[in-house]
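Hey, I'm writing a tutorial for new members on how sequence and structure tokens pair up, and I'd like a real worked example in the thread rather than a made-up one. If someone can provide the structure for the chain below, I'll link this post from the tutorial.
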Amino acid sequence: MNDHPVVHFEIGCHEGETTREFFAQLFGWEISGRDEGMIVDTGGAGGIGGHIVELAPEWGNYVTVYVEVEDLEGYLQKAGELGGKTLVPPVTLPGQGSFAWLAAPEGNVVGIWKPE
């Protein structure tokens, strides 16, 4: 049994309002908040939520998913052993949980998430 579901997605962009309007109009998503805190409700049974974040240009535009794990450091270490690397070490979001970013050997970026 898979105990590591995809639990969240993130859309990184430079123009938050443009990105918000595009996805809201395209898919009918409910998007609340502004700038770095745009929460996305995709609706529908079985859909996962996400957020849109407006970042500096050096981050580029991206979409990534977050996989729930029980041990961020352990999975970052395992990723390294498998040829991946840590991009963002664990960051705690008070009252929510912690996340980190890793890159697979070919550069695909995946977030890992440990709820509080």
